[in-house]
């Protein structure tokens, strides 16, 4: 079995960590075996201290912790876990062998435990609980990933806006360098101002634009040092273009540091101020004030031009209004959002007119006073209207006041962003959360039902074993006990098979074995399968099959399973002595098979969810008939795989119900129905080898074979099995696949390669029964593949095949 310490790192990708804490290695091995089929990373430690260290270095979906440990109890370890912010909400399941001690249970739940289980623990329940927290962990991670994607999208939008600003701000050069002053970015007006194209400049030292005398004096290095040490370095000096002409740069250099305050490079921002510099030098002595005023004016005009360029390129609504809220400017995107024509007279509109009627009073009473007042700004979610279409849009609004140099309010600015997509995403998240909550509720109901359904057959089986153990040899009524245990074991197998079928269909792993058949044959087979349930309830069954041939091409086993499920369902929900009718007729190119009963009926509000997973026909406790609520879901999925459909109708409670299956007819030749020969009696005495590491399983099969008159040998691993095979030379060998050391597949290959054992019939006897498992057995040299538990009919079939001289049967799965 794989655990965290034996699994390569590459195999852990996408798997979830589960922490197992127990000072007894045997208990850890049991937990690892129970949880192995979840295929997650199992981290096993033997003390609370080790558990705390593991929690510091990795994340876990759930912790299974023993209560009583020598140095630090499970409760003490849990208290320390809860004290750390990282593991404050980590699910903890306490395990104990001391029974349901109420004080301990209260202490466990006070520490935030999600469950408190008493040993011995049911593997099915434990796996189900752990699987729930794994599923919850994954869904939480998916939500986090969705939030991260939303954040990254916002960053991408911001980067695009920055790119637009850089591309449309040609008067300023934006230069980025690494820590050594090598150019990495050459943006904005850098090419226009310096004459260096970005492709040529990137990779060169930023000193290429400095004059030779400044380079000789170490000015570029001094500028970087000043920026690094003080946070900025003013850049007002003469530079040189690529063609040798000079220009005066007015800008600044700043260091670029990451979140850890580590230096990553420098950013240099400047503009071509040659004309201003020349004018300033000419008029510096005589017109200093005039020159400074002109420069301020020019910078202001350039700032307005840049602001207008940015507003024109923005996808948001950007508007300017007077201090009285009368609109004077709206950018192109804002006009489109508001449904205004390009030549619309903006002066006719006030700020409040752009909002939905139910928002206008709030804007006038709250928003505009806040923007005009001391706060000078307001932002939040509002609703905007489109003048042309009348549509109402959710928007995020930012409003702020615009002041002149004297601090006077000269206008109001508005920025509005359409957040329709964001709102839809939020609604979708709420819907997903509701769906998850419903799925969680139904899963909890299913787990409770599963526990109930498993206990029902286990209780009489355990009682039967006690009766057999206590009874004297030859005691009467043992046959009834055997029959009872056989029925309950069959019920358990039926539950497991239904679960496996649903799992295979859900994962798309089920394959149909289509063959020619007809409705009458399928109906007869289904009635035979369900006769025990019908007789148990004392029901009257009527079969009404159309006299004409109704040929089908279907997986016979699966369609018989569908009809048998419907008949069993009718028997289950019909009071004793009820009437059940199985009908089959033709409608167009389809065959209609229906099962009608006069039982408890179905309420109209339940019809819509009747075929959903974990849904039962009757939910009232006084009518509960058991079952996992997957039978009808399995029926629908199997019928849909055949290209058909299934429906249910009922007049209401206690009015009976009708289930109808529609399947497409195979309008070719009528199928030839093969006759089934009964299984022969058990063959003569054989030498049989049984290899199974489960001692009880091997011993019980050996006892059964000897009761049938055969001679047996039993091995518990592959190496012992190979030695016994060479010495015993059996006619037949039953090999488990999951053997320690040498696997069943390896043992089969070794037997096939051993001289003198060529004629031995090899049978794989395992709990794995998928098509891929059968194929692997065939490749390993097995003649048959049986899944546990094997019934006496399949066992006699294999024994008969082994008794036939020179038999070499084709690979099959009885």
From TrEMBL:
What positions are modified (4-aspartylphosphate)? 66, 736
**For the PAC domain, which residue ranges apply?**
233-285, 378-431
Q: EC annotation?
A: 2.7.13.3
Q: Which Gene3D superfamilies match?
A: 1.10.287.130, 3.40.50.2300, Histidine kinase-like ATPase, C-terminal domain (3.30.565.10), PAS domain (3.30.450.20)
Alphabetically list the UniProt keywords: Phosphoprotein
Could you tell me which InterPro entries the record lists for this protein?
A: CheY-like_superfamily, HATPase_C_sf, HATPase_dom, His_kinase_dom, HisK_dim/P_dom, HisK_dim/P_sf, PAC, PAS
Q: Where is the Histidine kinase domain?
A: 449-667
Tell me the protein's name: histidine kinase
Source organism (scientific name)? Massilia rubra
Query: What taxonomic ancestry is recorded?
Result: Bacteria, Pseudomonadati, Pseudomonadota, Betaproteobacteria, Burkholderiales
């Amino acid at each position: 079995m794989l655990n965290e310490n034996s699994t390569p790192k590459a195999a852990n990708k996408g798997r979830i960590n589960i922490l197992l804490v127990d000072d007894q290695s045997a208990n850890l091995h049991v937990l690892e075996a129970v949880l192995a089929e979840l295929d997650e990373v199992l981290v096993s430690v033997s003390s609370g201290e080790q558990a705390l260290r593991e929690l510091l270095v990795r994340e876990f979906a759930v912790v299974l912790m023993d209560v009583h440990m020598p140095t630090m109890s499970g409760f003490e370890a849990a208290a320390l876990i809860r004290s750390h912010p990282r593991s404050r909400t980590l699910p903890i399941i306490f395990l104990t062998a001391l029974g349901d001690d109420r004080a301990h249970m209260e202490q466990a739940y006070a520490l935030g435990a999600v469950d408190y289980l008493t040993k011995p623990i049911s593997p099915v329940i434990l796996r189900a609980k752990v699987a729930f927290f794994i599923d919850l962990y994954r869904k939480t991670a998916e939500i986090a990933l969705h939030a991260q994607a939303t954040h990254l999208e916002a960053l991408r939008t911001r980067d695009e806006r920055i790119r637009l600003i850089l591309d449309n701000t040609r008067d300023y050069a934006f230069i980025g360098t690494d820590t050594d002053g090598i150019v990495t970015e050459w943006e904005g007006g850098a090419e226009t101002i310096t004459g260096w194209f970005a492709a040529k400049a990137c990779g060169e030292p930023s000193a290429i634009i400095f004059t030779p005398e400044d380079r000789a004096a170490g000015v570029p290095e001094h500028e970087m040092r000043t920026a690094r040490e003080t946070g900025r370095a003013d850049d007002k000096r003469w530079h040189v273009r690529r063609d040798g002409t000079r220009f005066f740069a007015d800008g600044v250099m700043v260091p670029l540091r990451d979140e850890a305050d580590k230096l990553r490079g420098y950013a240099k921002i400047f503009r071509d101020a040659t004309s201003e510099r020349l004018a300033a030098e000419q008029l510096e002595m005589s017109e200093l004030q005039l020159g400074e005023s002109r420069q301020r004016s020019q910078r202001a005009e350039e700032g307005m031009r840049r602001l207008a360029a940015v507003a024109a390129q923005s996808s948001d609504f950007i508007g300017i209004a007077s201090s009285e809220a009368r609109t004077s400017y709206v950018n192109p995107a804002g006009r489109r959002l508001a449904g205004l024509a390009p030549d619309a007279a903006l002066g006719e509109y006030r700020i409040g007119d752009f909002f939905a009627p139910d928002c206008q009073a709030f804007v006038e009473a709250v928003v505009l006073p806040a923007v005009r007042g001391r706060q000078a700004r307001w932002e939040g979610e509002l609703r905007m209207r489109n003048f042309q279409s009348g549509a109402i849009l959710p928007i995020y609004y930012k409003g702020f006041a615009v002041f002149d140099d004297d601090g006077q309010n000269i206008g109001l600015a508005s920025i509005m962003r359409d957040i329709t997509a964001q709102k839809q995403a939020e609604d979708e998240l709420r819907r997903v959360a509701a769906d998850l909550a419903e799925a969680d509720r139904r899963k909890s109901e299913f787990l409770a039902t599963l526990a109930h359904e498993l206990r029902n057959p286990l209780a009489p089986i355990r009682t039967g074993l006690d009766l057999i153990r206590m009874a004297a040899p030859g005691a009467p009524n043992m046959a009834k006990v055997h029959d009872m245990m056989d029925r309950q074991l069959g019920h358990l197998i039926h539950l497991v098979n239904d679960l496996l079928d649903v799992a295979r269909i859900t994962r798309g792993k089920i394959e149909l074995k289509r063959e020619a058949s007809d409705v009458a044959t399928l109906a007869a087979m289904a009635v035979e399968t369900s006769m025990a349930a019908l007789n148990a309830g004392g029901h009257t069954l009527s079969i009404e099959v159309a006299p004409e041939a109704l040929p089908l091409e279907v997986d016979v086993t699966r369609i018989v399973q569908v009809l048998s499920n419907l008949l069993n369902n009718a028997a289950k929900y019909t009071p004793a002595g009820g009437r059940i009718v199985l009908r089959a007729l033709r409608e167009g190119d389809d065959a209609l098979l229906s099962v009608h009963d006069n039982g408890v009926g179905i309420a109209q509000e339940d019809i819509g969810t009747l075929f959903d997973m974990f849904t039962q026909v009757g939910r009232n406790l006084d009518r509960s008939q058991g079952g996992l609520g997957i039978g009808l879901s399995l029926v629908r999925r199997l019928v849909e795989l055949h290209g058909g459909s299934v429906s249910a109708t009922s007049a209401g409670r206690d009015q009976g119900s009708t289930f109808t299956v529609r399947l497409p007819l195979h309008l070719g030749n009528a199928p030839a129905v093969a006759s089934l020969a009964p299984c022969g009696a058990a063959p003569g005495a054989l030498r049989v080898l049984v290899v199974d590491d489960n001692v009880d399983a091997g011993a019980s099969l050996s006892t059964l074979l000897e009761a049938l008159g055969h001679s047996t040998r039993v091995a518990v691993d592959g190496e012992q099995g190979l030695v016994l095979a060479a010495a015993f030379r059996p006619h037949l060998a039953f090999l488990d696949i999951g053997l320690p050391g040498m696997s069943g597949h390896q043992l089969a290959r070794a037997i096939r390669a051993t001289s003198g054992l060529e004629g031995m019939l090899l049978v794989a006897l395992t709990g794995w029964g998928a098509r891929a498992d059968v194929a692997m057995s065939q490749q390993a040299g097995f003649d048959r593949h049986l899944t546990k538990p094997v019934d006496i009919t399949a066992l006699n079939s294999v024994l008969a095949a082994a008794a036939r001289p020179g038999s070499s049967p084709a690979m099959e799965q009885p």
